[in-house]
């Protein structure tokens, strides 16, 4: 995005500040530009709206959050979503979800995947494209679902569980996801992970929110939880990521965060640094990369971190499922000498059809110059 476009977007945001109803009109129903109009170019509306949304996401102040929530309510009414890379957009629990698959996948193999959050209006955006390209090149899919400004609430977690079930049970994705949290996506992903540690391969974060008290604050978050500020404070340890790390530590889930020491919106000391202190105490493994002089912004280094991408790819591919027993047995069978195959063949193929149901075990043991084939069942 050019500096001029950013300035125009910022100007549009200033216009939006004065009248929220007008804000909805500008963003949601900008009048199409007729071809050949004086001083206006067809496509400007979409370009400036996209630029303004990126600025809003980067700002994170109270005005920006209100505007984005208005946009979120409209966006989830339909199924349209612009992705930085071509993918599928679909509905889960009446919320907009997406899935981007690598071009080449081996038939029958489960696909490793990255779960990105937040999937709000305009996210994931162009800034994430470099990371996503690296994941796809390594055979890793990317998915996410827009749960609005849920701040990690139980309702948002329920939608996350519905997405997980859809992707794992119906779309061939691996049972463990690699979580990638940007900013407030940390609240969403960490709270789901704490309740589903066996389904998490790793967690990576780009200045992620890990502490509800820090951001957005209990007074703002309480509505998403259906509580008052005081009620949420009383039950905070049940909903605050930094208080829910024990299950992840027990499951040995590795974590990698990159966070700036000048972040005033999501302060390092109250979020990533505090999480690391607690995770270390629990015996968990976490790497925290602190970037000097950087805050909560769109600096390209956040989205071109070789170490973060390497971390995600390594752990996503580590969780590659083992081949089914039947395939392993077939390979072993083909490696047998011809005379052994003639002997074992009829029994192998007969029992092999029943697989685990009859507990068929096929064992090949070298014995001197000969071979012994043994079958056993329940």
Walk me through the structure:
This protein is of the alpha/beta class and 378 residues long. It has helices spanning 3-18, 20-28, 44-59, 62-75, 129-137, 154-170, 185-195, 218-221, 229-234, 246-250, 272-281, 300-303, 306-318, 325-334, 338-352; strands spanning 88-92, 95-100, 111-117, 141-145, 173-182, 200-206, 255-260, 286-291, 361-367, 370-376. The strands form 2 sheets. Strands 1-2-4-3-5-6-7-8 form an 8-stranded mixed beta sheet, sandwiched between helices. Strands 9-10 form a two-stranded antiparallel sheet. β9 and β10 (370-376) form a beta hairpin. α1 (3-18) packs across α2 (20-28), α3 (44-59) crosses α4 (62-75) and α6 (154-170) packs across α7. The longest helix is centred in the middle third of the chain and has 17 residues, at 154-170. The protein is globular. The N and C termini lie far apart (65 Å).
């Amino acid at each position: 995005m050019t500096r001029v476009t950013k300035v125009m977007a910022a100007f549009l945001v200033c216009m939006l500040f004065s009248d929220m109803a007008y804000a909805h009109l500008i963003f949601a129903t900008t009048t199409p530009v007729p071809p050949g109009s004086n001083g206006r170019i067809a496509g400007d509306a979409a370009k400036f709206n996209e630029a303004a949304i990126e600025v809003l996401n980067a700002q994170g102040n109270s005005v920006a959050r209100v505007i984005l929530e208005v946009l979120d309510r409209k966006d989830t009414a339909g199924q349209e979503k612009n992705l930085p890379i071509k993918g599928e957009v679909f509905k889960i629990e009446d919320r907009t979800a997406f899935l981007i698959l690598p071009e080449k996948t081996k038939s029958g193999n489960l696909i490793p995947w990255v779960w990105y959050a937040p999937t709000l209006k305009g996210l994931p955006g162009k800034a994430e494209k470099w990371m996503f390209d690296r994941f796809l090149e390594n055979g890793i899919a990317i998915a996410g679902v827009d749960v609005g400004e849920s701040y990690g609430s139980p309702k948002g977690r329920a939608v996350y569980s519905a997405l997980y079930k859809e992707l794992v049970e119906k779309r061939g994705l691996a049972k463990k996801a690699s979580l990638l949290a940007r900013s407030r996506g940390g609240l969403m992903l960490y709270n789901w992970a704490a309740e589903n540690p066996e389904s998490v391969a790793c967690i990576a974060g780009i200045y992620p929110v890990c502490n509800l008290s820090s951001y957005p604050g209990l007074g703002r978050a309480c509505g998403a939880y259906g509580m008052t500020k005081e009620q949420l404070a009383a039950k905070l340890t049940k909903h605050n990521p930094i208080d829910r790390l024990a299950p992840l530590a027990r499951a040995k889930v590795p974590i990698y965060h990159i966070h700036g020491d000048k972040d005033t919106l999501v302060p390092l000391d109250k979020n990533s640094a505090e999480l690391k202190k607690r995770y270390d105490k629990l015996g968990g493994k976490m790497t925290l990369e602190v970037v000097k002089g950087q805050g909560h912004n769109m600096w390209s280094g956040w989205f071109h971190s070789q170490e973060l991408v390497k971390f995600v790819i390594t752990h996503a591919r580590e969780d590659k499922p083992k081949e089914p027993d039947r395939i392993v047995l077939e390979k072993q069978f083909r490696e047998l000498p011809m005379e052994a195959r003639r002997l074992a063949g009829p029994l192998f193929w007969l029992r092999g059809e029943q697989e685990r149901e009859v507990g068929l075990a096929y064992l090949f043991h070298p014995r001197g110059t000969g071979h012994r084939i043994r079958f056993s069942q329940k």
